[in-house]
Amino acid sequence: MDPKPIITFLLLISATVIAAQEYVRPPPRKALHFPWSRKPSSHPQQVHISLAGDKHMRVTWITYDKSAPSIVEYGTSSGKYSSVAQGESTSYSYLLYRSGKIHHTVIGPLEHGTVYFYQCGGQDPEFQFKTPPAQFPITFAVAGDMGQTGWTKSTLDHIEQCKYDLHLLPGDLSYADYMQSRWDTFGELVQPLASARPWMVTQGNHEKENIPLLKDGFASYNSRWKMPYEESGSSSNLYYSFEVAGVHAIMLGSYTDYDEYSDQYRWLKADLSKVDRQKTPWLVALFHVPWYNSNKAHQGEGDSMMAAMEPLLYAASVDIVLAGHVHAYERTKRVNSGKSDTCGAVHITIGDGGNREGLAHKYINPSPEWSVFREASFGHGELKIVNSTHAFWTWHRNDDDEPVRSDQVWITSLVSSGCVAEKRHELRSILVAP
């Protein structure tokens, strides 16, 4: 019997099975349409919260009544507010656009792991949030490059199903791109989630919005999304740090000076010198432009920041680095100086939150030895720090149900592996260097 027909048949079956297992990406989704709705000028809008130092939360909202007070009433029972805090307000102009009154009010001290109910400016509706836990485990939802498309809505719907404590966003929020009203629609879009869990964000290129000789960059972003930079000793809202439940998180700026003579670099050295790895065994860094990227999009854009800051982050034994910018997902091995290093950081690019520019489909082949998993799909990540030694990272593709993990890995802390102790002298040397 001639074996050729049998071999051909088997090859056809094999090809069919492989094709059935391949992921088929659905078509793009359009930008969301936001119908105009009239609300009272004192009605709190675009409500979101962020951590503001130990046991404190910053509540931010906008009103179009310039006389509306910047007060937040809050308590642990619905409708019964045992405390009240007075905050500050700001506003900005951008060519013909005039923002509403932007309120920032810090409340606290608050108890860990507790549900609080609150009202902004003495007005309905009532909102509620849950404070992060005091100790492990703690879970972060992670999604960057959000935008305002159907994919954004899908990402937010998935995150809403996740049991998480904070949202980390490594840049590119609204994709307003000079159209200031789109900052307002973005604020309304994310309010259901951002008013219930802290959103800790850093800037991306779409936040710059500078007009030479007329308007400095980041005016909209800095006015609307105030982060705890003053609480962490920073002089700029574009970089800061915070601590929560055994994690020290560093939020860096890819679009402000970062060389060794810059304010950001000096602040980073000072911030790292204060980190107690016995108290906060996990060290995580976020910024917008990835340093390790095997996608053809944005190749080399993070090289100069990497040259300046990677030696410092490596000496400090940063465990995980999260970035955006590239509209795709990628995870690396522990890496440093362009190659695998068991004492380096795991780098994760997660700029796939739902932006209108679409996905970055083209990758460099063959993939670098440090690249473990990469895929051009929209989605979000979940980082669960289980204890002082282990964390569980998962990436969830939007086209699957949220419980489906498209990529997952257990990560062992550098404290438990001995790398922190091994590099103690190196860190001390780099921190005291002029």
From TrEMBL:
EC supergroup of this enzyme: hydrolase
Residue ranges of domain Purple acid phosphatase N-terminal in the record: 44-131
Residues of the Calcineurin-like phosphoesterase domain: 139-329
UniProt-listed SUPFAM superfamilies: Metallo-dependent phosphatases, Purple acid phosphatase, N-terminal domain
CDD domains: MPP_PAPs
Signal peptide: 1-20
Cofactor: Fe cation; Zn(2+)
Protein name: Purple acid phosphatase
Organism whose genome encodes this protein: Prunus persica (Peach)
